[in-house]
Amino acid sequence: MGTKKWLAGAAGVFAASLALSxxxxxxxxxxxxxxxxxxxxxAWNQAFYSANGVTSFGNATANNNILYMANDAFNYYDKDLNxxxxxxxxxxxxxxxxxxxxxxxxxxxxxxxxxxPVTPADLxxxxxxxxxxxxxxxxxxxxxxxxxxxKNTGTKVFFNASSPGFALIKxxxxxxGKTITYEYSKPYVDWDKGLMTTGVPAHVVGKRALGIxxxxxxxxxxxxxxxxxxxxxxxxxxxxxxxxxxFKTMPADKELLVSNGPYTIxxxxxxxxxxxxxxxxxxxxxxxxxxxxxxxxxxxxxASVQALQNGEVLxxxxxxxxxxxxxxQALPNVTVLNGVxxxxxxxxxxxxxxxxFDPAKYGGDAxxxxxxxxxxxxxxxxxxxIDNIIKPLNPDAxxxxxxxxxxxxxxxxxNVAANGMKAKYGEGPSIDKAKALLDEVGVKPTVRxxxxxxxTRRQQEFQLIKESAxxxxxxxxxxxxxxxxxxxxxxxxxxxxxxGWQSTSTGVTGADANYRTKxxxxxxxxxxxxxxxxxxxxxxxxxxxxxxxxxxxxxxxxTKDAFSITIFxxxxxxxxxxxxxxxxxxxxxxxxxxxxxxxxxx
Length: 602
Description:
By secondary structure, this protein is α+β, with helices and mostly antiparallel strands. Among the domains are: 170 residues, Alpha-Beta Complex (Dipeptide-binding Protein, domain 1); 230 residues, Dipeptide-binding Protein, Domain 3 (Dipeptide-binding Protein, domain 3, Roll), CATH 3.10.105.10. The chain is 29% helix and 18% strand. It has 17 helices and 21 strands. The protein is globular and about 70 Å long.
Protein backbone atom coordinates (compact mmCIF):
# COMPACT_ATOMS: atom_id res chain seq x y z
CA MET A 1 0.00 0.00 0.00
CA GLY A 2 1.10 3.51 -0.26
CA THR A 3 0.60 7.21 -0.93
CA LYS A 4 2.61 9.63 -2.95
CA LYS A 5 4.24 12.97 -2.92
CA TRP A 6 3.29 16.57 -2.60
CA LEU A 7 0.18 16.37 -4.66
CA ALA A 8 -2.63 18.81 -4.37
CA GLY A 9 -6.02 18.42 -5.90
CA ALA A 10 -8.32 21.33 -6.38
CA ALA A 11 -8.02 22.08 -2.70
CA GLY A 12 -4.36 21.40 -2.26
CA VAL A 13 -5.47 18.31 -0.40
CA PHE A 14 -3.85 15.01 -1.25
CA ALA A 15 -6.52 12.65 -0.02
CA ALA A 16 -6.52 10.34 -2.97
CA SER A 17 -7.94 6.95 -3.66
CA LEU A 18 -5.75 4.47 -1.87
CA ALA A 19 -4.45 1.05 -2.68
CA LEU A 20 -2.41 -1.44 -0.69
CA SER A 21 1.29 -1.37 -1.44
CA UNK A 22 3.69 -4.10 -0.40
CA UNK A 23 6.38 -3.04 1.08
CA UNK A 24 11.64 -16.23 -8.81
CA UNK A 25 11.56 -15.93 -11.82
CA UNK A 26 12.30 -15.81 -15.47
CA UNK A 27 15.51 -14.14 -16.60
CA UNK A 28 15.54 -11.29 -19.08
CA UNK A 29 14.44 -12.37 -22.57
CA UNK A 30 13.72 -15.95 -21.53
CA UNK A 31 10.34 -16.16 -23.23
CA UNK A 32 10.47 -18.64 -26.12
CA UNK A 33 10.27 -17.24 -29.62
CA UNK A 34 11.12 -13.66 -28.65
CA UNK A 35 14.35 -11.81 -29.26
CA UNK A 36 16.10 -9.92 -26.48
CA UNK A 37 15.12 -6.64 -28.13
CA UNK A 38 11.40 -7.33 -27.71
CA UNK A 39 11.33 -8.13 -23.98
CA UNK A 40 11.65 -5.92 -20.90
CA UNK A 41 11.75 -7.45 -17.42
CA UNK A 42 10.93 -5.23 -14.44
CA ALA A 43 11.36 -6.13 -10.76
CA TRP A 44 8.51 -5.63 -8.29
CA ASN A 45 8.22 -6.57 -4.64
CA GLN A 46 4.80 -8.24 -4.37
CA ALA A 47 3.14 -10.89 -6.51
CA PHE A 48 0.00 -10.53 -8.61
CA TYR A 49 -3.05 -12.35 -7.23
CA SER A 50 -6.22 -10.84 -8.71
CA ALA A 51 -7.40 -9.63 -12.11
CA ASN A 52 -10.22 -7.66 -10.47
CA GLY A 53 -8.42 -4.72 -8.90
CA VAL A 54 -11.52 -2.87 -7.70
CA THR A 55 -12.68 -5.44 -5.14
CA SER A 56 -11.63 -4.86 -1.55
CA PHE A 57 -9.57 -8.03 -1.87
CA GLY A 58 -7.90 -7.21 -5.18
CA ASN A 59 -7.30 -3.49 -4.56
CA ALA A 60 -3.50 -3.65 -4.30
CA THR A 61 -0.66 -2.07 -6.21
CA ALA A 62 0.73 -5.52 -7.05
CA ASN A 63 -2.43 -6.23 -9.05
CA ASN A 64 -3.24 -2.78 -10.36
CA ASN A 65 0.20 -2.17 -11.89
CA ILE A 66 -0.42 -5.19 -14.10
CA LEU A 67 -4.04 -4.32 -14.81
CA TYR A 68 -3.03 -0.77 -15.75
CA MET A 69 -0.96 -2.22 -18.61
CA ALA A 70 -3.69 -4.68 -19.56
CA ASN A 71 -6.66 -2.30 -19.63
CA ASP A 72 -7.62 1.07 -21.05
CA ALA A 73 -9.92 3.60 -19.40
CA PHE A 74 -11.45 7.02 -20.04
CA ASN A 75 -8.49 8.88 -18.51
CA TYR A 76 -5.08 8.56 -16.86
CA TYR A 77 -2.45 10.75 -15.15
CA ASP A 78 0.51 12.23 -17.03
CA LYS A 79 3.96 13.07 -15.62
CA ASP A 80 2.67 16.37 -14.21
CA LEU A 81 -0.30 14.63 -12.59
CA ASN A 82 -2.79 16.15 -14.97
CA UNK A 83 -5.80 13.95 -15.61
CA UNK A 84 -5.64 13.28 -19.36
CA UNK A 85 -8.66 12.04 -21.38
CA UNK A 86 -8.06 8.87 -23.39
CA UNK A 87 -10.34 9.52 -26.35
CA UNK A 88 -9.33 6.30 -28.11
CA UNK A 89 -11.29 4.52 -25.36
CA UNK A 90 -14.12 7.03 -25.06
CA UNK A 91 -15.22 10.52 -24.14
CA UNK A 92 -17.01 11.93 -21.12
CA UNK A 93 -18.62 15.17 -20.06
CA UNK A 94 -20.65 16.65 -17.24
CA UNK A 95 -23.99 17.66 -18.72
CA UNK A 96 -25.63 18.99 -15.57
CA UNK A 97 -24.67 20.18 -12.09
CA UNK A 98 -28.13 19.79 -10.58
CA UNK A 99 -28.55 16.92 -10.55
CA UNK A 100 -24.99 15.93 -11.35
CA UNK A 101 -25.24 14.12 -14.68
CA UNK A 102 -22.34 12.47 -16.49
CA UNK A 103 -22.41 11.24 -20.08
CA UNK A 104 -19.86 8.70 -21.33
CA UNK A 105 -19.51 7.53 -24.92
CA UNK A 106 -17.36 4.54 -25.80
CA UNK A 107 -15.16 4.80 -28.88
CA UNK A 108 -15.41 2.28 -31.69
CA UNK A 109 -11.81 1.37 -30.89
CA UNK A 110 -12.67 0.17 -27.36
CA UNK A 111 -12.43 -3.60 -27.72
CA UNK A 112 -11.79 -6.58 -25.45
CA UNK A 113 -8.83 -8.79 -26.29
CA UNK A 114 -11.17 -11.58 -27.47
CA UNK A 115 -12.55 -9.21 -30.12
CA UNK A 116 -15.79 -8.35 -28.30
CA PRO A 117 -16.55 -4.59 -28.24
CA VAL A 118 -16.60 -2.80 -24.90
CA THR A 119 -20.22 -1.76 -24.25
CA PRO A 120 -22.21 0.19 -21.66
CA ALA A 121 -22.94 -3.17 -19.98
CA ASP A 122 -19.27 -3.30 -18.94
CA LEU A 123 -19.55 0.17 -17.42
CA UNK A 124 -22.78 -0.74 -15.64
CA UNK A 125 -21.17 -3.82 -14.08
CA UNK A 126 -18.12 -1.82 -12.97
CA UNK A 127 -20.23 0.99 -11.50
CA UNK A 128 -22.97 -0.92 -9.71
CA UNK A 129 -20.76 -3.72 -8.41
CA UNK A 130 -18.68 -1.08 -6.63
CA UNK A 131 -21.63 1.00 -5.50
CA UNK A 132 -22.76 -1.27 -2.68
CA UNK A 133 -26.34 -0.36 -3.57
CA UNK A 134 -27.26 -3.90 -4.57
CA UNK A 135 -25.83 -5.70 -1.54
CA UNK A 136 -28.54 -7.15 0.69
CA UNK A 137 -26.36 -8.83 3.31
CA UNK A 138 -22.78 -8.66 4.60
CA UNK A 139 -20.56 -11.59 3.78
CA UNK A 140 -17.31 -12.76 5.34
CA UNK A 141 -14.41 -13.26 2.97
CA UNK A 142 -11.79 -15.98 2.81
CA UNK A 143 -8.47 -14.29 3.55
CA UNK A 144 -6.45 -16.34 1.10
CA UNK A 145 -8.77 -16.41 -1.92
CA UNK A 146 -11.14 -13.47 -1.51
CA UNK A 147 -14.10 -15.85 -1.84
CA UNK A 148 -17.31 -15.06 -0.03
CA UNK A 149 -17.77 -17.63 2.71
CA UNK A 150 -20.54 -20.05 1.77
CA LYS A 151 -21.00 -18.18 -1.54
CA ASN A 152 -23.98 -16.02 -2.39
CA THR A 153 -26.91 -18.38 -2.67
CA GLY A 154 -30.53 -17.89 -3.66
CA THR A 155 -31.15 -14.16 -3.63
CA LYS A 156 -28.23 -13.20 -1.34
CA VAL A 157 -26.20 -10.52 -3.09
CA PHE A 158 -22.84 -9.20 -1.94
CA PHE A 159 -20.30 -7.40 -4.12
CA ASN A 160 -17.00 -7.08 -2.25
CA ALA A 161 -16.30 -3.40 -2.94
CA SER A 162 -17.16 0.08 -1.77
CA SER A 163 -17.00 3.29 -3.79
CA PRO A 164 -18.42 6.45 -2.18
CA GLY A 165 -18.85 8.05 -5.59
CA PHE A 166 -20.62 5.17 -7.30
CA ALA A 167 -22.78 4.76 -4.19
CA LEU A 168 -24.42 8.04 -5.20
CA ILE A 169 -25.67 6.52 -8.46
CA LYS A 170 -29.05 5.19 -7.38
CA UNK A 171 -30.90 5.24 -10.68
CA UNK A 172 -30.27 2.93 -13.60
CA UNK A 173 -28.59 4.96 -16.35
CA UNK A 174 -29.92 5.90 -19.74
CA UNK A 175 -28.28 3.84 -22.49
CA UNK A 176 -28.30 4.81 -26.16
CA GLY A 177 -25.99 2.77 -28.36
CA LYS A 178 -22.49 3.28 -27.01
CA THR A 179 -23.51 6.23 -24.81
CA ILE A 180 -24.44 5.90 -21.16
CA THR A 181 -25.69 8.73 -18.95
CA TYR A 182 -25.56 8.54 -15.15
CA GLU A 183 -27.42 10.73 -12.68
CA TYR A 184 -25.97 11.16 -9.18
CA SER A 185 -28.25 11.52 -6.17
CA LYS A 186 -26.17 14.49 -4.99
CA PRO A 187 -23.09 16.39 -6.18
CA TYR A 188 -19.79 14.53 -6.03
CA VAL A 189 -16.61 16.52 -6.41
CA ASP A 190 -14.41 13.65 -7.66
CA TRP A 191 -16.75 12.14 -10.25
CA ASP A 192 -14.08 12.15 -13.00
CA LYS A 193 -11.62 10.11 -10.85
CA GLY A 194 -14.05 7.19 -11.04
CA LEU A 195 -13.40 6.82 -14.76
CA MET A 196 -9.85 5.51 -14.43
CA THR A 197 -10.80 1.83 -14.40
CA THR A 198 -13.20 -0.26 -16.48
CA GLY A 199 -13.27 -3.45 -14.44
CA VAL A 200 -13.80 -6.97 -15.72
CA PRO A 201 -15.71 -7.87 -18.92
CA ALA A 202 -19.47 -8.17 -18.50
CA HIS A 203 -19.75 -10.80 -21.25
CA VAL A 204 -17.30 -13.08 -19.42
CA VAL A 205 -19.09 -12.55 -16.10
CA GLY A 206 -22.45 -13.20 -17.79
CA LYS A 207 -21.24 -16.41 -19.37
CA ARG A 208 -19.77 -17.76 -16.14
CA ALA A 209 -22.61 -16.62 -13.88
CA LEU A 210 -25.65 -17.13 -16.08
CA GLY A 211 -24.51 -19.76 -18.58
CA ILE A 212 -24.98 -17.55 -21.65
CA UNK A 213 -22.41 -18.23 -24.37
CA UNK A 214 -23.27 -15.43 -26.80
CA UNK A 215 -21.17 -12.43 -25.63
CA UNK A 216 -23.73 -9.80 -26.61
CA UNK A 217 -26.53 -11.60 -24.84
CA UNK A 218 -24.36 -12.40 -21.82
CA UNK A 219 -23.36 -8.76 -21.33
CA UNK A 220 -26.94 -7.60 -21.80
CA UNK A 221 -28.14 -10.12 -19.21
CA UNK A 222 -25.71 -8.67 -16.67
CA UNK A 223 -27.00 -5.17 -17.39
CA UNK A 224 -30.61 -6.33 -17.17
CA UNK A 225 -29.99 -7.99 -13.81
CA UNK A 226 -29.02 -4.62 -12.33
CA UNK A 227 -31.82 -2.79 -14.14
CA UNK A 228 -34.47 -5.21 -12.90
CA UNK A 229 -32.88 -5.73 -9.47
CA UNK A 230 -32.98 -9.44 -10.17
CA UNK A 231 -31.37 -10.72 -6.97
CA UNK A 232 -31.32 -14.33 -8.11
CA UNK A 233 -29.17 -13.35 -11.10
CA UNK A 234 -27.16 -10.78 -9.14
CA UNK A 235 -26.26 -13.40 -6.52
CA UNK A 236 -24.63 -15.49 -9.26
CA UNK A 237 -23.04 -12.42 -10.86
CA UNK A 238 -21.58 -11.27 -7.55
CA UNK A 239 -20.09 -14.73 -6.93
CA UNK A 240 -18.21 -14.58 -10.21
CA UNK A 241 -17.21 -10.93 -9.79
CA UNK A 242 -15.90 -11.47 -6.25
CA UNK A 243 -14.04 -14.73 -6.74
CA UNK A 244 -13.40 -15.99 -10.25
CA UNK A 245 -10.78 -13.38 -11.15
CA UNK A 246 -8.62 -14.16 -8.11
CA PHE A 247 -5.70 -16.40 -9.10
CA LYS A 248 -1.94 -16.58 -8.63
CA THR A 249 -1.11 -18.87 -11.55
CA MET A 250 -2.45 -19.09 -15.08
CA PRO A 251 -6.16 -19.96 -14.85
CA ALA A 252 -7.48 -22.95 -16.75
CA ASP A 253 -10.13 -20.69 -18.33
CA LYS A 254 -8.30 -18.12 -20.43
CA GLU A 255 -11.48 -16.01 -20.62
CA LEU A 256 -10.52 -14.74 -17.14
CA LEU A 257 -7.53 -13.01 -18.77
CA VAL A 258 -9.61 -11.02 -21.26
CA SER A 259 -8.60 -7.33 -21.12
CA ASN A 260 -9.13 -4.23 -23.25
CA GLY A 261 -5.72 -2.56 -23.13
CA PRO A 262 -2.35 -2.69 -24.88
CA TYR A 263 -1.26 -5.95 -23.23
CA THR A 264 -2.79 -9.22 -22.05
CA ILE A 265 -1.46 -11.58 -19.40
CA UNK A 266 0.12 -14.57 -21.17
CA UNK A 267 2.08 -16.25 -18.37
CA UNK A 268 1.80 -16.22 -14.59
CA UNK A 269 3.78 -18.16 -11.99
CA UNK A 270 2.82 -17.74 -8.33
CA UNK A 271 5.29 -15.57 -6.41
CA UNK A 272 7.64 -15.59 -9.43
CA UNK A 273 6.54 -13.48 -12.37
CA UNK A 274 3.71 -12.26 -14.59
CA UNK A 275 4.23 -11.81 -18.31
CA UNK A 276 2.23 -9.47 -20.51
CA UNK A 277 2.28 -9.63 -24.32
CA UNK A 278 0.91 -7.25 -26.91
CA UNK A 279 -2.84 -7.50 -27.35
CA UNK A 280 -3.43 -8.20 -31.08
CA UNK A 281 -6.96 -6.79 -30.88
CA UNK A 282 -5.95 -3.50 -29.26
CA UNK A 283 -7.06 -0.52 -31.35
CA UNK A 284 -6.35 2.34 -28.92
CA UNK A 285 -3.69 5.03 -28.96
CA UNK A 286 -1.32 3.54 -26.37
CA UNK A 287 0.27 0.95 -28.64
CA UNK A 288 3.53 -0.15 -26.96
CA UNK A 289 6.85 -0.58 -28.76
CA UNK A 290 7.94 -3.51 -26.58
CA UNK A 291 6.38 -6.88 -27.42
CA UNK A 292 6.55 -8.37 -23.93
CA UNK A 293 6.88 -7.01 -20.41
CA UNK A 294 7.64 -9.48 -17.62
CA UNK A 295 7.22 -8.28 -14.05
CA UNK A 296 9.48 -10.43 -11.92
CA UNK A 297 8.62 -10.74 -8.24
CA UNK A 298 11.63 -10.01 -6.02
CA UNK A 299 10.51 -9.00 -2.51
CA UNK A 300 14.08 -8.60 -1.25
CA UNK A 301 15.51 -5.23 -2.29
CA UNK A 302 19.08 -6.56 -2.29
CA ALA A 303 18.14 -9.36 -4.65
CA SER A 304 16.39 -6.94 -7.01
CA VAL A 305 19.52 -4.78 -7.25
CA GLN A 306 21.60 -7.90 -7.91
CA ALA A 307 19.18 -8.88 -10.68
CA LEU A 308 19.58 -5.42 -12.20
CA GLN A 309 23.35 -5.71 -12.03
CA ASN A 310 23.22 -9.12 -13.71
CA GLY A 311 21.01 -7.84 -16.51
CA GLU A 312 18.12 -10.08 -15.44
CA VAL A 313 15.85 -7.05 -14.97
CA LEU A 314 15.97 -3.59 -16.53
CA UNK A 315 14.37 -1.60 -13.71
CA UNK A 316 13.56 -1.89 -10.02
CA UNK A 317 11.77 0.33 -7.53
CA UNK A 318 12.47 -1.46 -4.23
CA UNK A 319 11.62 -0.40 -0.71
CA UNK A 320 15.20 0.61 -0.28
CA UNK A 321 17.60 1.12 2.59
CA UNK A 322 20.64 3.41 2.53
CA UNK A 323 22.86 0.48 1.52
CA UNK A 324 20.50 -0.43 -1.31
CA UNK A 325 20.55 3.14 -2.64
CA UNK A 326 24.36 3.21 -2.60
CA UNK A 327 24.48 -0.09 -4.45
CA UNK A 328 22.08 1.17 -7.11
CA GLN A 329 24.05 4.39 -7.54
CA ALA A 330 27.26 2.41 -7.96
CA LEU A 331 25.95 0.27 -10.83
CA PRO A 332 27.40 1.06 -14.28
CA ASN A 333 25.00 1.96 -17.09
CA VAL A 334 22.18 2.50 -14.61
CA THR A 335 20.28 5.73 -13.90
CA VAL A 336 18.84 6.22 -10.43
CA LEU A 337 15.76 8.43 -10.14
CA ASN A 338 15.45 9.55 -6.53
CA GLY A 339 12.55 11.31 -4.89
CA VAL A 340 9.64 11.06 -2.48
CA UNK A 341 6.96 8.58 -3.37
CA UNK A 342 3.19 8.29 -3.24
CA UNK A 343 3.21 6.01 -0.22
CA UNK A 344 3.09 6.85 3.47
CA UNK A 345 3.88 4.49 6.33
CA UNK A 346 1.47 4.21 9.24
CA UNK A 347 0.22 2.02 12.07
CA UNK A 348 -3.46 1.06 12.41
CA UNK A 349 -5.20 -0.80 15.24
CA UNK A 350 -8.14 -3.21 15.18
CA UNK A 351 -11.23 -2.16 17.12
CA UNK A 352 -13.44 -5.11 16.15
CA UNK A 353 -11.62 -8.28 17.25
CA UNK A 354 -12.07 -8.32 21.05
CA UNK A 355 -8.36 -7.56 21.28
CA UNK A 356 -6.53 -4.94 23.34
CA PHE A 357 -7.82 -1.97 21.32
CA ASP A 358 -11.47 -3.08 21.10
CA PRO A 359 -14.08 -1.78 23.59
CA ALA A 360 -15.53 -5.31 23.66
CA LYS A 361 -12.38 -6.40 25.48
CA TYR A 362 -13.40 -4.16 28.37
CA GLY A 363 -17.11 -4.84 28.52
CA GLY A 364 -17.94 -2.18 25.96
CA ASP A 365 -15.90 0.57 27.67
CA ALA A 366 -14.97 2.71 24.63
CA UNK A 367 -13.02 5.23 26.70
CA UNK A 368 -10.82 2.53 28.20
CA UNK A 369 -10.09 1.04 24.77
CA UNK A 370 -9.26 4.49 23.41
CA UNK A 371 -6.75 5.07 26.21
CA UNK A 372 -5.05 1.76 25.43
CA UNK A 373 -4.83 2.79 21.75
CA UNK A 374 -3.41 6.15 22.77
CA UNK A 375 -0.85 4.44 24.97
CA UNK A 376 0.30 2.27 22.08
CA UNK A 377 0.56 5.23 19.72
CA UNK A 378 2.65 7.06 22.31
CA UNK A 379 5.23 4.27 22.03
CA UNK A 380 5.77 4.52 18.25
CA UNK A 381 9.35 5.85 17.84
CA UNK A 382 8.61 7.90 14.74
CA UNK A 383 11.73 10.05 14.70
CA UNK A 384 14.02 7.12 15.48
CA UNK A 385 12.52 5.14 12.58
CA ILE A 386 13.18 8.07 10.27
CA ASP A 387 16.70 8.74 11.60
CA ASN A 388 17.78 5.11 11.46
CA ILE A 389 16.05 3.90 8.30
CA ILE A 390 14.80 6.76 6.12
CA LYS A 391 17.23 9.67 6.45
CA PRO A 392 20.11 7.70 4.95
CA LEU A 393 17.92 7.52 1.83
CA ASN A 394 16.51 11.04 2.08
CA PRO A 395 18.45 13.43 4.34
CA ASP A 396 15.47 15.80 4.34
CA ALA A 397 13.02 13.15 5.55
CA UNK A 398 10.68 14.30 8.28
CA UNK A 399 7.76 12.89 10.23
CA UNK A 400 4.49 13.00 8.34
CA UNK A 401 1.86 14.43 10.70
CA UNK A 402 -1.24 14.24 8.52
CA UNK A 403 -3.71 11.50 7.72
CA UNK A 404 -4.72 13.01 4.39
CA UNK A 405 -2.38 15.78 3.26
CA UNK A 406 1.05 15.14 1.78
CA UNK A 407 4.01 17.06 3.20
CA UNK A 408 4.72 19.96 0.88
CA UNK A 409 1.11 20.49 -0.15
CA UNK A 410 -0.04 24.11 0.33
CA UNK A 411 -2.36 23.23 3.20
CA UNK A 412 -0.09 20.71 4.95
CA UNK A 413 1.07 22.94 7.82
CA UNK A 414 -2.49 24.16 8.37
CA ASN A 415 -3.70 20.57 8.56
CA VAL A 416 -0.92 19.58 10.99
CA ALA A 417 -1.86 22.43 13.29
CA ALA A 418 -5.54 21.52 13.13
CA ASN A 419 -5.48 17.74 13.44
CA GLY A 420 -3.46 17.63 16.68
CA MET A 421 -1.31 14.58 15.85
CA LYS A 422 2.02 16.41 16.13
CA ALA A 423 0.97 18.25 19.29
CA LYS A 424 -0.13 15.00 20.94
CA TYR A 425 2.51 12.48 19.91
CA GLY A 426 5.48 14.61 18.86
CA GLU A 427 8.53 12.72 17.68
CA GLY A 428 7.74 9.72 19.88
CA PRO A 429 8.10 7.71 21.91
CA SER A 430 6.55 9.13 25.08
CA ILE A 431 7.02 6.09 27.31
CA ASP A 432 6.01 7.85 30.54
CA LYS A 433 2.68 8.96 29.03
CA ALA A 434 2.05 5.45 27.72
CA LYS A 435 2.82 3.91 31.12
CA ALA A 436 0.55 6.41 32.86
CA LEU A 437 -2.38 5.52 30.60
CA LEU A 438 -1.89 1.79 31.06
CA ASP A 439 -1.64 2.26 34.82
CA GLU A 440 -4.83 4.34 34.76
CA VAL A 441 -6.82 1.62 33.00
CA GLY A 442 -5.03 -1.20 34.81
CA VAL A 443 -4.00 -3.39 31.89
CA LYS A 444 -0.76 -4.76 30.41
CA PRO A 445 -1.92 -5.67 26.89
CA THR A 446 -0.52 -8.21 24.47
CA VAL A 447 -0.47 -6.88 20.92
CA ARG A 448 -0.15 -9.12 17.83
CA UNK A 449 1.70 -6.91 15.37
CA UNK A 450 1.44 -7.66 11.64
CA UNK A 451 3.76 -6.40 8.88
CA UNK A 452 5.34 -7.68 5.68
CA UNK A 453 7.70 -10.29 7.05
CA UNK A 454 9.64 -10.55 3.76
CA UNK A 455 10.41 -6.82 3.69
CA THR A 456 13.72 -5.81 5.29
CA ARG A 457 12.68 -2.26 6.05
CA ARG A 458 9.47 -3.37 7.72
CA GLN A 459 11.40 -5.92 9.78
CA GLN A 460 13.61 -3.11 11.06
CA GLU A 461 10.63 -0.88 11.84
CA PHE A 462 8.90 -3.68 13.72
CA GLN A 463 11.92 -4.27 15.94
CA LEU A 464 12.10 -0.57 16.87
CA ILE A 465 8.38 -0.46 17.64
CA LYS A 466 8.48 -3.69 19.66
CA GLU A 467 11.41 -2.52 21.79
CA SER A 468 9.74 0.80 22.49
CA ALA A 469 6.26 -0.55 23.24
CA UNK A 470 7.59 -3.18 25.64
CA UNK A 471 9.29 -0.47 27.68
CA UNK A 472 5.80 0.89 28.42
CA UNK A 473 4.35 -2.46 29.49
CA UNK A 474 2.98 -3.88 26.25
CA UNK A 475 3.88 -7.38 25.14
CA UNK A 476 4.35 -7.30 21.37
CA UNK A 477 4.04 -10.57 19.47
CA UNK A 478 5.54 -10.92 16.00
CA UNK A 479 2.61 -11.55 13.64
CA UNK A 480 4.58 -10.74 10.50
CA UNK A 481 3.28 -12.44 7.38
CA UNK A 482 4.21 -12.47 3.70
CA UNK A 483 0.49 -12.40 2.85
CA UNK A 484 -0.26 -9.43 5.11
CA UNK A 485 -2.25 -7.61 2.40
CA UNK A 486 -4.76 -10.41 1.95
CA UNK A 487 -5.08 -10.72 5.74
CA UNK A 488 -5.97 -7.11 6.46
CA UNK A 489 -9.69 -7.79 6.34
CA UNK A 490 -9.35 -10.53 8.99
CA UNK A 491 -8.54 -8.76 12.26
CA UNK A 492 -8.71 -12.06 14.12
CA UNK A 493 -5.13 -12.46 12.86
CA UNK A 494 -3.70 -9.22 14.32
CA UNK A 495 -4.25 -6.28 16.66
CA UNK A 496 -1.96 -3.70 15.07
CA UNK A 497 -0.52 -3.49 11.59
CA UNK A 498 2.25 -1.53 9.86
CA UNK A 499 1.92 -0.83 6.14
CA GLY A 500 1.65 1.94 3.56
CA TRP A 501 -1.24 3.50 1.68
CA GLN A 502 -0.49 4.42 -1.90
CA SER A 503 -2.50 7.13 -3.59
CA THR A 504 -3.96 6.49 -7.01
CA SER A 505 -5.56 9.88 -7.72
CA THR A 506 -5.54 13.52 -6.75
CA GLY A 507 -9.15 13.47 -5.60
CA VAL A 508 -10.14 14.86 -2.22
CA THR A 509 -12.56 12.08 -1.26
CA GLY A 510 -10.36 9.01 -1.74
CA ALA A 511 -9.71 8.54 1.97
CA ASP A 512 -13.46 8.24 2.55
CA ALA A 513 -13.18 4.45 2.38
CA ASN A 514 -10.53 4.48 5.13
CA TYR A 515 -12.56 6.23 7.80
CA ARG A 516 -16.23 5.80 7.00
CA THR A 517 -18.19 3.27 9.01
CA LYS A 518 -17.87 -0.02 7.09
CA UNK A 519 -15.79 1.73 4.42
CA UNK A 520 -13.96 -0.50 1.95
CA UNK A 521 -10.53 0.24 3.47
CA UNK A 522 -11.79 0.47 7.05
CA UNK A 523 -10.86 -3.03 8.14
CA UNK A 524 -10.77 -2.20 11.83
CA UNK A 525 -14.37 -1.52 12.84
CA UNK A 526 -13.77 2.20 13.37
CA UNK A 527 -17.05 4.09 13.45
CA UNK A 528 -17.75 7.76 14.14
CA UNK A 529 -21.00 9.51 13.30
CA UNK A 530 -19.11 12.80 13.36
CA UNK A 531 -16.55 11.61 10.84
CA UNK A 532 -19.24 10.06 8.63
CA UNK A 533 -21.06 13.39 8.58
CA UNK A 534 -17.91 15.32 7.69
CA UNK A 535 -17.18 12.85 4.89
CA UNK A 536 -20.71 13.39 3.56
CA UNK A 537 -20.06 17.13 3.45
CA UNK A 538 -16.67 16.67 1.76
CA UNK A 539 -18.22 14.62 -1.05
CA UNK A 540 -20.31 17.56 -2.23
CA UNK A 541 -18.07 20.51 -1.30
CA UNK A 542 -16.49 22.22 -4.32
CA UNK A 543 -14.92 25.22 -2.57
CA UNK A 544 -11.19 24.49 -1.97
CA UNK A 545 -11.02 26.46 1.29
CA UNK A 546 -14.01 24.64 2.72
CA UNK A 547 -12.59 21.31 1.54
CA UNK A 548 -9.45 22.01 3.54
CA UNK A 549 -11.49 22.91 6.60
CA UNK A 550 -13.41 19.63 6.41
CA UNK A 551 -10.20 17.61 6.01
CA UNK A 552 -8.79 19.40 9.07
CA UNK A 553 -11.87 18.54 11.12
CA UNK A 554 -11.72 14.90 10.04
CA UNK A 555 -8.08 14.72 11.10
CA UNK A 556 -8.86 16.21 14.49
CA UNK A 557 -11.55 13.59 15.09
CA UNK A 558 -9.19 10.76 14.08
CA THR A 559 -6.57 12.01 16.53
CA LYS A 560 -9.15 12.35 19.29
CA ASP A 561 -10.33 8.78 18.65
CA ALA A 562 -6.76 7.38 18.52
CA PHE A 563 -7.53 5.87 15.13
CA SER A 564 -4.00 5.59 13.75
CA ILE A 565 -0.64 7.31 13.45
CA THR A 566 1.39 8.25 10.38
CA ILE A 567 5.18 7.98 10.26
CA PHE A 568 6.87 8.99 7.01
CA UNK A 569 6.45 9.54 3.31
CA UNK A 570 8.27 6.84 1.35
CA UNK A 571 11.55 7.63 -0.34
CA UNK A 572 11.24 6.12 -3.80
CA UNK A 573 14.50 5.50 -5.64
CA UNK A 574 14.04 3.88 -9.05
CA UNK A 575 17.00 2.28 -10.78
CA UNK A 576 16.74 1.88 -14.56
CA UNK A 577 19.17 0.27 -16.96
CA UNK A 578 20.26 2.59 -19.74
CA UNK A 579 18.95 -0.07 -22.15
CA UNK A 580 15.40 0.91 -21.21
CA UNK A 581 14.47 4.39 -22.43
CA UNK A 582 11.71 6.86 -21.46
CA UNK A 583 11.15 5.51 -17.95
CA UNK A 584 10.14 7.96 -15.24
CA UNK A 585 8.07 7.69 -12.07
CA UNK A 586 5.09 9.78 -11.06
CA UNK A 587 3.83 10.52 -7.57
CA UNK A 588 0.78 8.27 -7.88
CA UNK A 589 0.29 4.60 -8.54
CA UNK A 590 1.26 3.14 -10.99
CA UNK A 591 4.53 5.07 -10.44
CA UNK A 592 7.12 3.92 -13.01
CA UNK A 593 4.52 2.08 -15.15
CA UNK A 594 2.50 5.24 -15.91
CA UNK A 595 3.81 5.60 -19.52
CA UNK A 596 4.75 2.00 -20.34
CA UNK A 597 3.61 2.47 -23.95
CA UNK A 598 6.40 5.04 -24.44
CA UNK A 599 9.17 2.74 -23.21
CA UNK A 600 11.81 1.77 -25.73
CA UNK A 601 14.70 -0.68 -25.70
CA UNK A 602 17.98 0.65 -26.99
